[in-house]
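Researcher: Let's walk through a ligand-bound prediction step by step. First, I give you the protein sequence. Second, the SMILES string for copper (II) ion. Third, you return the three-dimensional complex as structure tokens. Ready?
Model: Ready.
Researcher: Here are steps one and two:
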Amino acid sequence: MKLRNAQTTIIIVALAFVFVQCGGKTENTVTQEEETVATRNQETLVAEQTSIDEVTLELNAGDMLQFDKTELRVKEGQEVTLTLNHTGQMPKEGMGHNFVLLKPGTDIAAFASEALNARENEYIPEGEEAVIVHTKLIGGGESDTITFTAPPKGTYDFICSFPGHYALMKGKFIVE
Ligand SMILES: [Cu+2]
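Model: Step three, the predicted complex:
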């Protein structure tokens, strides 16, 4: 009888030990999972906030009269960092490129002919209200980066205002 009692006690203690161990482990695992989920949520939130507030755009043009993109999309109020790369080899005097963002409703042909006479100002007509932002005029191998706040929702035109380029070097800048 005594022996049986002792055995029962051992079994109960052993079971209790196993139970405690399992319980402990489960609790630990849950806590770790919760922490991982919380960390992930935080990371996602940071990533989303970054993508909402900022956007980076890259536009390339070589020795041909062509931008590699004819459509750029951003969101209203975003901080836009735009880099224009001249991937060609010709100097800016002969094959200069720039990025000029124009206000909606701008008569592009009229603007371009005005730009034609603004050689000393890198083909940006001075005091021109149609220009929202623009990069420098660059030649082969050069780049220029500008940062600006995306204007209100709408569709805007962008062009290269170097003489004779706007007819082919143009695109839509869409703010959603
Ligand atoms: Cu150009």
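Researcher: And what stands out?
Model: The longest helix spans residues 2-53. The beta strands are 54-61, 71-74, 79-86, 100-102, 131-134, 143-149, 154-159, 170-175.
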